[in-house]
Amino acid sequence: MSLAARTADLPPAGAAAPAAARRGEFEATLALRHGGTPRVRIAWELAGPEGAPVVLVAGGISAHRHASPSPDFPEPGWAGDLVRAGRTLDPAHVRVLGFDYVGADGRLDAPIDTTDQADAVALLLDALGIERLRAFVGYSYGALVGLQFAARHPLRVEALVAVSGAHRAHPYAAAWRALQRKAVALGQLQCADVQGLSLARQFAMLSYRTPEEFEERFDAPPQVANGRVRVAAEDYLDVAGARFVARTPVTAWLRLSESIDLHRVDPARVRVPTVVVAVEGDRLVPLSDSVALVEGLGAHGQLRVLRSPYGHDAFLKETDRIDAILAGVLRQHGESA
Amino acid sequence: MSLAARTADLPPAGAAAPAAARRGEFEATLALRHGGTPRVRIAWELAGPEGAPVVLVAGGISAHRHASPSPDFPEPGWAGDLVRAGRTLDPAHVRVLGFDYVGADGRLDAPIDTTDQADAVALLLDALGIERLRAFVGYSYGALVGLQFAARHPLRVEALVAVSGAHRAHPYAAAWRALQRKAVALGQLQCADVQGLSLARQFAMLSYRTPEEFEERFDAPPQVANGRVRVAAEDYLDVAGARFVARTPVTAWLRLSESIDLHRVDPARVRVPTVVVAVEGDRLVPLSDSVALVEGLGAHGQLRVLRSPYGHDAFLKETDRIDAILAGVLRQHGESA
Question: What class of enzyme is it (chains A, B) (predicted)?
Fold first, then answer.
């Protein structure tokens, strides 16, 4: 891995006001695990007061650098109920760092691994002059990247919180994602990329949520119209698909989806204190894999189990409970640091 | 519903030898629940000695009239390990009746309901001169048809065994099937019907099986070839898709898939003794729906729960346990008849 970063958009030292946020991006050369050393763009956002401990927050493959709104960047973030005043991740007291995953701009059409993302995070910390993260908080894909980061760059993070992500993709979840990629390929056969990606997203939605939630929301008989049957959840799924394709380049989605399935990390190589948060009822990351991960972490691992009707998406929904877990982790490592 | 049957292929009375099988088909006019009174083709197969009690066996939407091989029709059947010498459904002692679902030939392009299938069964019994079934054994879609048959034609069946099917489609399962139908529609957009149906079948396979089985069979790292990631289950799924499209008309599949989602029956209207067999881990028919069904059946219902790594497909895999349940039902109703 070679670093050739232009640290763009860094503010003058000491200029940031509390809760201010800044953004930037730079290019770097990244040696990919599956071959090639392309130039990649690393885009980041950092919110919070200069000198405060830094917590990196990384979400699912659709997440990005903008976790929460700030006066500088007022648009809603992807983790707005976890990163805000009153929460453990309050940008008045903690610096919250986010980044766009390598490949998320759709310009890198090659197999991307979680190791590549972890190395990109190290480059980002170099570029920002951050020696060590107080914590890496990763959800879903972010948990996979966090595990790789802890394994590859252990001196640069004090604690890891890995929510809804394990040391490998479960074979059933991998098959589920492979079929989503086939839906895109079916669309691409005939230049119907958007329809293919929309279907893939809708199929993914079923893996992110649970039967309990669908029963609660969509327990109505189907409609028969124009000779066709339409079930109660179809409007919801159609909207979810349309919203997704409007913001997602097909190549980015394909490569990041593959990246989840390429992910493998030996838990014994992770020697950073790690809290694994599993959600009972998660259809992508079964509790048994989280248990296996924690067993492999040995003395470094702790397991927390949540029950949630939101399944894999619990991180974005069960924010009070996640915040309580984060409070425990940050208090502990704040005191020992 | 009007009957206009030509009873074709019926052998001369008394001519059948033990374990002989015969087949036939006839046309009838069927008043469909969602409109229209088309002429439909009803194809059947009856194995076993003249005068023996008749058990109708109905499977999933891909099943057909040929449950098991016989000297007359030696090709493998869809339920060969449940209908054979040594089993409760031994064609030496029981007459086993199977039929092709209405719409299975792909010639009826209209919404088909489980009530339509139930009425077709009544027409079939009329045509064969069978007053009353000793039992209706239905699995998956067959369980739905059995429930409707018991509700609509209660005098024509002594006992029902409903495996992996309930009184309504679960909203999550309905959404899963709706996305399969969208895969077909995506293929049809561009005359890639076969690819669409193959993808739909592969989606469906994930709902028929369980993560436990996939972990057992496909726990290997993905391959990277030609710049693309291929997970361990993809070969298996591709083969399953290709086999399916080779034997399934697209229209038949679409209409029978819809039919599952149209299914609704009030359990209180089922007053035939019914054993509901639920499989813990079935991703299409959750245990909670089977429990609700049995509660609605009141004194007429009994619940049996199996745990199986095969999920919704347990009927075809846990044949020893299913056979033991059938033995109990047939013994009981054989004695009281």
Answer: transferase
